[in-house]
Design a protein that fits this description.
Radius of gyration: 23 Å
Largest sheet: 9 strands, mixed
Mean pLDDT: 93
Strand order of the largest sheet: 2-1-13-12-14-15-16-17-18
Low-confidence stretches: none
Number of helices: 16
Shape: globular
Strand content: 15-25%
Helix content: 25-40%
C-alpha cells in the first residue's frame, strides 16, 4: 500500500465526527473557568455522597495556586501529585495549572525506593500527597542529596473530602477501604496541612500559560534505565480532551465513573480534564471495589464508564451482580488489556453496549486509536482518532507495510508528546519521518485490516501487561539487585488466569544465600520495596542465566521456555 492522505478508515468514518479539530487557543485551566461560569452550582465530582461543585473546585484550585506561588512556584516549575483518586487530586491538578506550573502525577503504589527518582529527575520542590503516603515521601526525600530535596510537602487527609458521618448504604465501601479512608495519620515534621494551605488566603498572580506551555510530565518506563518523563503541553492534552468528548458522546448531561487511576494518562485525561471541559459529573472511586462500583452505577445513573476490561470481568463475577441496575450505561470504553470475546458478547447481549476498545500510550496523551461506538469491532484497537495518522512499518527497514502484514505501529498527530524530559537521545530514537511528518514509534506490533482497523499482535518492547498495569522488567530487575541474596535476576511474563500476564523472577542467588533463601522471602521483600503490581508473583531459582556471546542475558530464551512450559501443561 502506498502512503496516501486518504487512509482506509476514512471510508467508514462516522459522519457525525470531523476529521480534524479546531482547538481552543487557551490553557487547560480556562476550561474550568468556563464550566465554573456556566454551571457554578452543578456537581463536578461526587465522593461518597459529598458533592464538589464547579464553583467550589475553581475556588479551592485558586487558593491552592496562590499558596504554591507564595511558596516559590514559578511558571514551568514541576509539582508532584502523589495520591489515589479523590477530589483533592483534581483540585491539586487544577491548582498547579492555575499557578502556571507543571503537574507530575506519580503512581501511589510506589515505595520510597522508587519515589526518590521522581523528585530528583523532575526537579520538583513541592509534593502534594495524602497522609497515608506522606511517610513514603519523607523517607524518599531524606535519602536524596541535599541539593535535590523538597522544599515543601503539602499533606491532605481523605477526611477533608468525605461527608460528615458515614455515607448512605449505597455509597459505603468495604470495611477495609472505609478504615483506610478514615484512619488518622500524624502530620510529618515540616509538612503543611492541606486545609491550612487553602485557608491561607493567598491570591495567585494572573494566569499566563498558553497552549504551547508544558502542563504535564507523566513518567513512563522503558526497556532500559529508570522511568522517563513525557513532556505534554496544554495543546497536546487539549486535543484528546476535546476530541474524546466528541468521540464518546460526552456532554454536560453525562455522569461518568472515575475509577481508572487518575495518575495514569487515561484516568488523567478522562477523569481529571475531560469532564471539567464539558461540564459533566464524575463519581470518584478511590480503589477498585466491584460491589461499590455496582451500587454507584445504579445509584448515580452512570452513563459513561472508561475502564480496564478486568474491571468488567470482576463486576460480572460479583454474587450481587443481579441486584445492580446497569441500564443507565450508554458508553463503555477502555483498553490496557485485551477484552475477552465472551465478556464483550455478554455486555452486548445484556445491555446492548459494544465495548469500545481504544489504544494509546503515555507518550500519546491516551488514545491515538479508538473504536467508533457505532461501528466497533471486538478485540480490536480501533481506527486512528480525529487528527491522528497511524501506519504499520517494518521495524528494521522502516518501510511502510501493506494491509494485513504485521509490523510496528507508528503514530502522528497533535496529541503526541514533545519528547522525554532530559533525554534528547531517547527522544530522537523514538521518532521517524514518513511523508515529511514525525511519527512516534510505539514499540507495539500490530496489523491493519482493509477498513483501517488496527489489531495488536505482540510487543516489540519488553513489557509485561498485568491487568492493564505496564511492568517494565528492567525496572523490577534493578530493584531486585538491591536484595542482599540476589546475584542476578531476569524478569519475564508468566500466564495468569485473571491478570492475563503476571511477573515472574528468574533468580540466581549469591553463594552464601543458597539453601537459606526461599521464593516467598524474595516476594515478601519485593512487596516492601516496589509497587504491588510490579512484585513478582512467581520466583524460580536457577544456577545461571543464559547469556549471549556479548554477555547479555537472553531474556527472550527464558520467555520462550516459559511459554513452552505453559503450552505443555495445557496439553497434559
Amino acid at each position: 500500500m502506498s502512503p496516501s492522505a486518504d487512509r482506509p478508515h476514512h471510508k467508514i468514518w462516522p459522519a457525525r465526527l470531523p476529521r480534524s479539530l479546531v482547538l481552543p487557543q487557551t490553557s487547560l485551566w480556562f476550561n474550568l473557568e468556563v464550566s465554573a461560569t456556566r454551571y457554578p452550582d452543578k456537581s463536578a465530582y461526587r465522593f461518597f455522597g459529598r458533592e464538589l461543585s464547579f464553583a467550589d473546585l475553581r475556588r479551592q484550585a485558586e487558593a491552592l495556586a496562590g499558596w504554591l506561588q507564595a511558596h516559590g512556584v514559578e511558571r514551568g516549575d514541576r509539582v508532584i501529585v502523589f495520591m489515589q483518586n479523590c477530589p483533592q487530586f483534581v483540585i491539586a491538578v487544577q491548582g498547579i495549572l492555575r499557578a502556571d506550573a507543571v503537574v507530575v502525577p506519580v503512581n501511589p503504589m510506589n515505595k520510597a525506593d522508587e519515589f526518590g527518582h521522581y523528585i530528583a529527575d523532575s526537579g520538583a520542590r513541592i509534593v502534594i500527597t495524602t497522609a497515608d503516603l506522606a511517610a513514603i515521601v519523607t523517607q524518599a526525600d531524606a535519602a536524596l542529596p541535599e541539593g535535590q530535596r523538597l522544599a515543601h510537602r503539602l499533606v491532605s487527609a481523605f477526611a477533608d473530602a468525605l461527608p460528615p458521618g458515614q455515607p448512605e448504604a449505597a455509597e459505603m465501601p468495604s470495611p477495609a477501604v472505609w478504615q483506610w479512608l478514615t484512619t488518622e495519620h500524624a502530620l510529618p515534621a515540616g509538612a503543611t496541612r492541606w486545609r491550612e494551605a487553602l485557608a491561607a488566603g493567598c491570591v495567585p498572580r494572573p494566569h499566563a500559560s498558553g497552549p504551547d506551555d508544558m502542563a504535564l510530565l507523566p513518567y513512563t518506563s522503558g526497556t532500559t534505565g529508570l522511568p522517563k518523563g513525557c513532556i505534554h503541553t496544554h495543546a497536546t492534552l487539549m486535543h484528546n480532551v476535546v476530541g474524546g468528548a466528541l468521540w464518546g458522546h460526552g456532554s454536560a448531561e453525562a455522569v461518568t465513573l472515575a475509577v481508572v487511576p487518575m495518575f495514569h494518562i487515561t484516568g488523567f485525561v478522562y477523569s481529571v480534564l475531560s469532564g471539567v471541559a464539558v461540564g459533566s459529573t464524575a463519581v470518584i472511586v478511590p480503589r477498585w471495589d466491584r460491589e461499590l462500583v455496582g451500587r454507584l452505577i445504579s445509584r448515580h445513573r452512570v452513563t459513561h464508564w472508561t475502564c480496564i476490561p478486568t474491571m468488567i470481568i470482576d463486576l460480572f463475577g460479583s454474587p450481587n451482580y443481579a441486584s445492580f441496575d446497569l441500564s443507565s450505561l450508554r458508553y463503555v470504553s477502555g483498553g490496557g488489556a485485551a477484552m475477552p470475546q465472551a465478556v464483550a458478547e455478554r455486555l452486548q447481549r445484556e445491555f446492548g453496549i459494544t465495548f469500545a476498545e481504544g489504544y494509546g500510550l503515555t507518550e500519546t496523551a491516551a488514545p491515538t486509536h479508538a473504536n467508533p461506538p457505532e461501528r466497533a469491532k471486538l478485540q480490536c484497537l480501533g481506527i486512528p482518532i480525529i487528527g491522528a495518522d497511524a501506519r504499520i512499518i517494518d521495524p528494521e527497514t522502516l518501510r511502510e507495510l501493506p494491509i494485513g502484514e504485521t509490523g510496528e505501529i507508528v503514530s502522528h498527530g497533535p496529541m503526541i508528546f514533545k519528547g522525554y524530559w532530559g533525554h534528547p537521545e531517547a527522544t530522537k530514537a523514538a521518532f521517524i519521518e514518513i511523508d515529511g511528518k514525525p511519527f512516534f514509534r510505539t514499540g507495539d506490533l500490530g496489523r491493519m485490516d482493509d477498513e483501517g482497523y488496527f489489531f495488536i499482535t505482540d510487543r516489540l518492547k519488553r513489557m509485561i501487561n498485568a491487568s492493564g498495569f505496564k511492568v517494565w522488567p528492567a525496572e523490577v530487575e534493578a530493584l531486585l539487585y538491591k536484595h542482599p541474596a540476589v546475584q542476578e535476576a531476569c524478569i519475564i511474563a508468566a500466564h495468569d488466569d485473571y491478570r492475563g500476564e503476571t511477573v515472574k523472577a528468574v533468580v540466581v542467588l549469591r553463594e552464601a544465600a543458597r539453601g537459606h533463601t526461599s521464593a516467598q522471602q524474595i516476594i515478601d521483600w519485593s512487596r516492601e520495596h516496589m509497587a504491588a503490581y510490579k512484585v513478582p508473583r512467581q520466583v524460580q531459582f536457577v544456577d545461571a542465566l543464559p547469556k549471549s556471546g556479548s554477555g547479555k542475558v537472553m531474556w527472550r530464551l527464558l520467555q520462550e521456555q516459559e511459554s513452552a512450559s505453559l503450552a505443555a501443561a495445557s496439553k497434559a
